[in-house]
Protein backbone atom coordinates (compact mmCIF):
# COMPACT_ATOMS: atom_id res chain seq x y z
CA UNK A 1 0.00 0.00 0.00
CA UNK A 2 1.43 3.38 -0.86
CA UNK A 3 2.15 6.02 1.76
CA UNK A 4 -0.71 8.34 0.76
CA UNK A 5 -3.25 5.52 0.97
CA UNK A 6 -1.88 4.41 4.35
CA UNK A 7 -2.12 7.99 5.66
CA UNK A 8 -5.70 8.32 4.39
CA UNK A 9 -6.70 5.05 6.03
CA UNK A 10 -5.05 6.08 9.29
CA UNK A 11 -6.79 9.48 9.22
CA UNK A 12 -10.14 7.78 8.57
CA UNK A 13 -9.54 5.40 11.47
CA UNK A 14 -8.70 8.28 13.82
CA UNK A 15 -11.89 10.13 12.77
CA UNK A 16 -13.92 6.98 13.48
CA UNK A 17 -12.32 6.63 16.92
CA UNK A 18 -13.17 10.23 17.82
CA UNK A 19 -16.73 9.81 16.50
CA UNK A 20 -17.18 6.61 18.52
CA UNK A 21 -15.85 8.30 21.66
CA UNK A 22 -18.16 11.29 21.16
CA UNK A 23 -21.13 8.99 20.64
CA UNK A 24 -20.30 6.88 23.69
CA UNK A 25 -20.00 9.95 25.92
CA UNK A 26 -22.95 11.72 24.34
CA UNK A 27 -25.85 13.29 26.17
CA UNK A 28 -27.23 11.50 29.18
CA UNK A 29 -30.63 9.85 28.69
CA UNK A 30 -32.24 11.31 31.83
CA UNK A 31 -35.29 9.01 31.87
CA UNK A 32 -33.18 5.89 31.40
CA UNK A 33 -30.73 6.95 34.11
CA UNK A 34 -33.55 7.79 36.51
CA UNK A 35 -35.11 4.34 36.04
CA UNK A 36 -31.71 2.72 36.59
CA UNK A 37 -30.96 4.54 39.86
CA UNK A 38 -34.46 3.81 41.20
CA UNK A 39 -33.73 0.12 40.54
CA UNK A 40 -30.39 0.42 42.38
CA UNK A 41 -32.02 2.11 45.38
CA UNK A 42 -34.70 -0.59 45.47
CA UNK A 43 -32.02 -3.30 45.27
CA UNK A 44 -30.18 -1.72 48.21
CA UNK A 45 -33.47 -1.51 50.12
CA UNK A 46 -34.09 -5.21 49.46
CA UNK A 47 -30.58 -6.06 50.66
CA UNK A 48 -31.09 -4.11 53.88
CA UNK A 49 -34.49 -5.74 54.41
CA UNK A 50 -33.21 -9.30 53.91
CA UNK A 51 -29.65 -9.08 55.28
CA UNK A 52 -29.86 -6.18 57.74
CA UNK A 53 -28.41 -2.67 57.88
CA UNK A 54 -24.88 -3.75 58.82
CA UNK A 55 -24.68 -6.02 55.76
CA UNK A 56 -26.10 -3.24 53.60
CA UNK A 57 -23.50 -0.79 54.87
CA UNK A 58 -20.70 -3.26 54.21
CA UNK A 59 -21.82 -3.99 50.64
CA UNK A 60 -22.56 -0.36 49.72
CA UNK A 61 -19.14 0.71 51.04
CA UNK A 62 -17.43 -1.78 48.70
CA UNK A 63 -16.50 0.06 45.47
CA UNK A 64 -16.44 -3.32 43.69
CA UNK A 65 -20.08 -4.10 44.58
CA UNK A 66 -23.14 -3.82 42.36
CA UNK A 67 -23.86 -0.51 44.07
CA UNK A 68 -20.99 1.27 42.31
CA UNK A 69 -21.07 1.50 38.52
CA UNK A 70 -18.85 3.81 36.50
CA UNK A 71 -18.93 7.22 38.23
CA UNK A 72 -22.26 6.50 39.93
CA UNK A 73 -23.08 4.80 43.21
CA UNK A 74 -25.50 4.22 46.09
CA UNK A 75 -24.81 5.86 49.44
CA UNK A 76 -26.60 5.58 52.77
CA UNK A 77 -27.51 8.19 55.40
CA UNK A 78 -29.32 8.10 58.72
CA UNK A 79 -32.30 10.35 59.47
CA UNK A 80 -30.00 13.08 60.82
CA UNK A 81 -28.02 13.29 57.52
CA UNK A 82 -24.99 11.39 58.80
CA UNK A 83 -23.27 9.31 56.13
CA UNK A 84 -23.43 5.59 56.92
CA UNK A 85 -21.91 4.26 53.69
CA UNK A 86 -20.16 5.92 50.73
CA UNK A 87 -18.09 3.84 48.27
CA UNK A 88 -16.11 6.69 46.68
CA UNK A 89 -15.44 8.92 49.70
CA UNK A 90 -15.12 6.76 52.82
CA UNK A 91 -13.85 9.81 54.70
CA UNK A 92 -17.43 11.11 54.69
CA UNK A 93 -18.66 8.17 56.80
CA UNK A 94 -19.89 9.48 60.15
CA UNK A 95 -20.04 13.07 58.95
CA UNK A 96 -23.24 15.09 59.07
CA UNK A 97 -23.98 16.64 55.68
CA UNK A 98 -27.23 18.45 56.48
CA UNK A 99 -25.67 21.91 56.21
CA UNK A 100 -23.51 21.05 53.21
CA UNK A 101 -23.91 23.66 50.50
CA UNK A 102 -23.84 23.16 46.77
CA UNK A 103 -20.46 24.52 45.57
CA UNK A 104 -22.03 26.09 42.46
CA UNK A 105 -25.43 27.35 43.63
CA UNK A 106 -24.51 27.93 47.32
CA UNK A 107 -27.71 26.27 48.57
CA UNK A 108 -28.03 23.61 51.32
CA UNK A 109 -29.18 20.80 49.04
CA UNK A 110 -29.93 18.14 51.68
CA UNK A 111 -32.28 20.31 53.80
CA UNK A 112 -35.42 19.87 51.62
CA UNK A 113 -34.75 16.14 51.32
CA UNK A 114 -34.51 15.69 55.08
CA UNK A 115 -37.60 17.80 55.71
CA UNK A 116 -39.41 15.28 53.48
CA UNK A 117 -37.90 12.10 54.97
CA UNK A 118 -38.61 13.23 58.53
CA UNK A 119 -42.22 14.06 57.69
CA UNK A 120 -42.99 10.87 55.74
CA UNK A 121 -41.88 7.32 56.64
CA UNK A 122 -42.35 6.31 52.98
CA UNK A 123 -40.62 9.36 51.52
CA UNK A 124 -39.06 9.21 48.08
CA UNK A 125 -37.96 12.01 45.80
CA UNK A 126 -35.36 13.64 43.63
CA UNK A 127 -32.79 16.33 44.36
CA UNK A 128 -30.24 18.03 42.11
CA UNK A 129 -26.93 19.53 43.14
CA UNK A 130 -23.30 19.75 42.05
CA UNK A 131 -20.82 17.20 43.37
CA UNK A 132 -17.32 16.01 42.57
CA UNK A 133 -17.31 13.20 40.01
CA UNK A 134 -15.21 10.03 40.39
CA UNK A 135 -13.07 9.34 37.34
CA UNK A 136 -13.48 5.55 37.57
CA UNK A 137 -9.76 5.12 38.35
CA UNK A 138 -9.81 5.84 42.07
CA UNK A 139 -9.59 9.62 41.67
CA UNK A 140 -11.81 12.52 40.64
CA UNK A 141 -12.16 14.77 37.61
CA UNK A 142 -10.17 17.95 38.18
CA UNK A 143 -10.46 21.52 36.94
CA UNK A 144 -7.61 23.46 35.33
CA UNK A 145 -6.16 24.36 38.75
CA UNK A 146 -6.09 20.72 39.90
CA UNK A 147 -9.11 20.98 42.21
CA UNK A 148 -11.97 18.52 42.19
CA UNK A 149 -14.45 19.73 39.58
CA UNK A 150 -18.18 19.75 40.51
CA UNK A 151 -20.68 18.26 38.05
CA UNK A 152 -24.47 18.39 38.09
CA UNK A 153 -25.83 15.32 39.87
CA UNK A 154 -29.42 14.08 39.98
CA UNK A 155 -30.15 11.90 43.02
CA UNK A 156 -33.11 9.70 43.93
CA UNK A 157 -33.70 9.05 47.62
CA UNK A 158 -35.90 6.65 49.53
CA UNK A 159 -36.50 6.39 53.24
CA UNK A 160 -36.55 2.87 54.60
CA UNK A 161 -37.04 2.81 58.34
CA UNK A 162 -34.22 4.86 59.86
CA UNK A 163 -32.10 4.88 56.69
CA UNK A 164 -32.15 7.10 53.62
CA UNK A 165 -30.93 5.23 50.53
CA UNK A 166 -29.58 7.48 47.78
CA UNK A 167 -28.32 6.89 44.26
CA UNK A 168 -27.74 9.30 41.48
CA UNK A 169 -26.07 10.01 38.20
CA UNK A 170 -24.05 12.82 36.75
CA UNK A 171 -26.08 14.70 34.16
CA UNK A 172 -23.02 16.01 32.34
Care to describe what's here?
The chain is α+β, with helices and mostly antiparallel strands and 172 residues long. It has four helices and six strands, in the order αααβββαβββ. The protein has one domain (30-170): Beta-Lactamase, CATH 3.30.450. Strands 1, 2, 3, 4, 5 and 6 form a six-stranded antiparallel β-sheet that branches. Helix 2 (30-51) packs across helix 3. The radius of gyration is 20 Å and the shape is globular. The termini are far apart.
| Count of β-strands | 6
Q: Note the total helix count.
A: 4
Alpha-beta content class: alpha+beta
The H/E string reads: HHHEEEHEEE
Q: Report low-confidence residues grouped into runs of 5 or more.
A: 2-24
Roughly how many Å is the radius of gyration? 20 Å
The proportion of residues in beta strands is: 15-25%
Residue share in helices? 25-40%
Query: Biggest sheet, in brief?
Result: 6 strands, antiparallel
Number of domains: 1
Indicate the CATH topology. Answer: Beta-Lactamase
Main CATH class? Alpha Beta
Molecular shape: globular
End-to-end Cα distance: 43 Å
Q: In CATH terms, what is the architecture?
A: 2-Layer Sandwich
Task: State mean pLDDT (0 to 100 scale).
Answer: 85
CATH H-level superfamily: PAS domain
Which key terms come to mind for this protein?
about 170 residues; disordered N terminus; 6 strands; Beta-Lactamase; six-stranded antiparallel beta sheet
Topology:
Elements: H1 3-24, H2 30-51, H3 53-61, E1 68-69, E2 72-78, E3 83-85, H4 111-119, E4 124-132, E5 150-160, E6 163-170
Antiparallel strand pairs: 1-2, 2-3, 2-6, 4-5, 5-6
Helix pairs in contact: 2-3
Amino acid sequence: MNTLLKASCMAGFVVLLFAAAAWASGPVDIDKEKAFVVDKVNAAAALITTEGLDAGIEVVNDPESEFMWGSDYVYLMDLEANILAHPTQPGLIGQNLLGLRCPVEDTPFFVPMFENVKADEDATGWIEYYWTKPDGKGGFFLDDEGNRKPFKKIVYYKRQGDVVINAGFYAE
